[in-house]
Structures are given as structure tokens and as C-alpha cells.
């Protein structure tokens, strides 16, 4: 297992990373802010992994700039996970699951 990147490295990666693209060019860029012990984070990551999509995870247990950036991007929300698809704020695990139940998540993911 690779050692975890520093928080600053993770933020820089998020800012400079191109979208993940499927062969047809339609796969969305998925970003998820998490904490190590968060069961809701695990649930959201499991849902996304089960769909076979890649996502960029930023672990914010230590706080600092990555947490501040998440709060800013999420309109002041401080809970985790906070999920973004193609830069649009989706919300947390419950919102992600609701989109999936409604059949609206797959199109957002480019599936």
C-alpha cells in the first residue's frame, strides 16, 4: 500500500487533475472528502466503487486547508462525506443514495 499523500498534495492534485474519461470520453470527475472512521463515507465510496467508477478522495481527518476548502466548496457544510461530480456539489452519502434510487446518478457519472 502506498503511503498517503500530504493534505497539501491532495488539494494540489484535485486542482490540477483532468477528468477521468472513459473510452467514449463521458466519464465524470468524482471528488469525495472523507474522514477515516466515517461510516457514511464508507457507504458512499462503496456505492461508487460498485458502479465501477474512479473517484478522487481527500481525507480531512487532520483538518487544515483541505477541510477549509471542502467547507467553502460545500457552501458551509461541515459533515463528511461531501461529494462533487464534475465540480457540482452533490451533498453527502444520503443525497448520493437518493440520486441512485431515483435513477439519476448513472447519467451524472457518465454511465
From TrEMBL:
InterPro entries in the record: GLR_AS (IPR011767), Glutaredoxin (IPR002109), Glutaredoxin_subgr (IPR014025), GRX_bact (IPR011900), Thioredoxin-like_sf (IPR036249)
Coiled coil: none
Residue ranges of the TM segments: none
Superkingdom in the source lineage: Bacteria
All copies of domain Glutaredoxin, residue ranges: 30-90
Keyword Repeat belongs to the record: no
Keyword terms, alphabetized: Cytoplasm, Disulfide bond, Electron transport, Redox-active center, Transport
Role description: Has a glutathione-disulfide oxidoreductase activity in the presence of NADPH and glutathione reductase. Reduces low molecular weight disulfides and proteins.
Entry similarity comment: Belongs to the glutaredoxin family.
Protein name as it appears in the record: Glutaredoxin
Organism: Blastomonas aquatica
Amino acid at each position: 500500500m502506498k503511503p498517503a499523500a500530504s493534505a497539501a498534495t491532495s488539494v494540489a492534485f484535485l486542482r490540477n487533475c483532468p477528468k477521468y474519461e472513459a473510452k467514449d470520453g463521458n466519464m465524470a470527475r468524482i471528488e469525495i472528502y472523507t474522514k477515516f472512521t466515517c461510516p457514511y463515507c464508507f457507504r458512499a465510496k462503496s456505492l461508487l466503487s460498485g458502479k465501477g467508477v474512479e473517484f478522487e478522495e481527500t481525507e480531512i481527518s487532520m483538518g487544515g486547508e483541505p477541510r477549509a476548502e471542502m467547507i467553502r466548496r460545500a457552501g458551509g457544510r461541515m459533515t463528511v462525506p461531501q461529494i462533487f461530480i464534475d465540480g457540482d456539489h452533490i451533498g453527502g452519502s444520503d443525497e448520493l443514495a437518493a440520486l441512485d434510487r431515483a435513477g439519476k446518478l448513472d447519467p451524472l457519472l457518465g454511465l
